[in-house]
Structures are given as C-alpha cells and as structure tokens.
Amino acid sequence: MNYGVSYTKGCYLGQEIIARLDTRGVPAKMLRHLVFADDFCAEPGADVLVDGEKMGEVRSAVPGRALAYVKRGKNDPGTTVDVAGHAAVVERLPPW
After folding, report:
1. Beta partners for residue 50, in sequence order
2. Strand ranges (E), the chain
C-alpha cells in the first residue's frame, strides 16, 4: 500500500528519513508504553536503561505507567527495562 509516499520523486523535505524507513523497515526508535510493577511515576526526560545502557527516554508518565521512546532492538513487547531504579515492562501502545 502506498500511503501517498513517493520513492521515485526528486528531492523533498523528509526524503532521507523515508528512504531509511524503506530500506530498514522500522524506525530507529518507537514510542512505547512502559508498565511499572509499582506506582512509580517517572520524570519526563528520565533515561530508559537496558542492561545498564541508555536505550531511550521517558516522554510522559503517570503513577505506574509511562510513554517513552525506546531504540530499535530493545523496544520489543515483553522487554524489561529500568527507569531510575524501577523495573518496567515494554508494551505496544494501547489502541485508544
């Protein structure tokens, strides 16, 4: 399905990103839903760590949940991440 994107048109704003998505198939990072085991409320801008390595950043949060951009390869549903010493499980965004 095309979705109104041309892969043959000349130069246009965003062309490099579109070409990269076409080549790799997935974006470098995705917005994901994080679910904490407790009622921890992460601060926006807090690092999302996987095995001690920064793999993303919290964008917004409420007690027990957060939205965060997480890098490709570490954003699969079920992945356990750490935010400020609190464990969270990565989930796809709910279909609200």
Report:
1. 53
2. 29-36, 47-50, 53-62, 65-71, 80-83, 86-91
Q: Are 33 and 59 in contact (CB under 8 A)?
A: no
94 close to 33: Cβ distance less than 8 angstroms = yes
Q: How far apart are CA 82 and CA 46, in angstroms?
A: 10
Backbone angles phi, psi at 62, to 5 degrees: -130, 165
Give the three-state DSSP class for 19: helix
Q: Name the residue with tokens 């790799």.
A: 24
**CA 92 to CA 69: how far, in whole Å?**
11
Per residue of the chain (96 residues), give pLDDT as tens: 556 777 777 788 878 877 777 777 777 899 999 999 999 999 999 999 999 999 999 999 999 999 999 998 899 999 999 999 999 999 998 776
